[in-house]
Amino acid sequence: MSHAYHISEDQFVRACWHAHRPLRLRLTLALFVVLALFPPVVGFTAASISATAIVAVLLIGFRWGLLPRIHGWRFRRTYRDNPLIQREQQLEMNPTGFVLSSSNGESRYAFRELKKVSVLEDMVLVYPTTTLFHMIPTALLSDFELAQFRALA
Questions:
Q1: Residue 5: which H helix or E strand, with range?
Q2: SS3 (DSSP) at 129
Q3: Helices and strands (DSSP H and E) totals, the chain
Q4: Nearest-CA neighbor of 117 among 21, 26, 25, 19?
Q5: Are 133 and 19 in contact (CB under 8 A)?
Q6: CA 36: distance to chain centroid?
Q7: Looking at the predicted structure, is the pLDDT value of residue 39 above 80?
Q8: How far, rounded to the nearest angstrom, does the alpha carbon of residue 123 sit from its chain's CA centroid?
């Protein structure tokens, strides 16, 4: 049975936020490593501690203030600039995998060949490669089909 769906801009942005989570975690870890190593490397003086505090405020402001806005803008722009993402998609499930198709073409995937699967509240992200993912709305999937994806997650 074939299911038709469209990916909305909000769904695309949420999926990208989730997909870029490892990058944000590495950036946060690097931020704390830099802040922890700065005083021992420079020395524990009043000036170095003040400089560490200033750098901490700037890095934290960038990481949690500016970077989310930049990423949100970039993800929305990517969606708007790529009509292929906005086209109607077709999903066809079979016992060993699934087929995704649109007016642009089709892709066939076996469950055993997927690199990663992330099951979110309203969508499933399937990764046929380490960086490329496809989005499938969970509303299209039966309980059994959703369980198949959850088993791979």
A1: strand 2-5
A2: coil
A3: 6, 7
A4: 19
A5: yes
A6: 28
A7: no
A8: 12
Termini Cα distance of the chain: 24
Of the listed ranges 53-62, 84-93, 127-136, the one predicted with least confidence? 53-62
Confidence (pTM): 0.78
For 89, counting Cβ atoms within 10 Å of its Cβ (0-12 exposed, 13-18 middle, 19+ buried), the class is buried
| Identity at 131, one-letter amino acid code | T
**Average per-residue pLDDT for the chain:** 88
Ranking 51-60, 102-111, 116-125 by mean pLDDT, the lowest is 51-60
| Residue appearing with tokens 């936020």 | 17
Distance CA 71, CA 77 (A): 10
Cα 126 from Cα 82, distance rounded (Å): 20
